[in-house]
Automatic annotation (TrEMBL):
PANTHER family: HTH-TYPE TRANSCRIPTIONAL REGULATOR IMMR, TRACRIPTIONAL REGULATORY PROTEIN-RELATED-RELATED. Keywords: DNA-binding, Membrane, Transmembrane, Transmembrane helix. Residues 7-61 form the HTH cro/C1-type domain. This is Transcriptional regulator. The chain crosses the membrane at residues 88-106, 112-131, 158-176, 182-198. One of its GO terms (molecular function) is DNA binding. The keyword Cell membrane does not apply. InterPro entries: Cro/C1-type_HTH (IPR001387), Lambda_DNA-bd_dom_sf (IPR010982). It comes from the Bacteria. Pfam families: HTH_3.
Amino acid sequence: MKFGERLKQARIEMDLTQGQVANDFFITRQTISSWENEKTYPDISSLIKLSDYYHISLDILLKEDVGMRESLEKKEVSEELRPVRRNLILIDLILLVVLLGNLFNVFKISGGFLLCILLILLCTISALSDLNNFDKSYSLGLKYEWQKYISGDKGKKYALILPTLFVIIGMVLLMLQMMSVGLPFLFLGIVFFGAILLKNRKK
């Protein structure tokens, strides 16, 4: 018997609804449904709680379920990738400070070097997006309204903020006849838009 089937059988035997279990675990009913249908899997902490809650040993819960074991392995990999994510965010912040310094004439950057900075920024943001998608593949579900607002289809709107800013800044700089700076901003903004739309279309 698979993991989801064991959970559902145990819940039915205890005469509980998905909503009752969700309230006891402080998560949404959709999350319980997702676990029982094996669309997502709980993390190790929730797995232990489920074992105690349903009085089923971890060995029985995990037995013959490859998907559950793969999910736990993915969780371990994600923990190891946390320093990578922090470093990518730090790099992005440094690059943004450099770009803002150039924009407000704190210091001057040549056109070629500026283009390299923008390309690096694009690559790091893309990497962060991939890491975020990796995390979402085993998430516990959404409980609060603010989480729902910045995820899913609505969250895609937030992804468009950066390319929109790049395009606006690029157009303003072109209007000010700062071609060497404005064109890279405009070009990268368009590339950002294309990459986001292409990624969403694939999904």
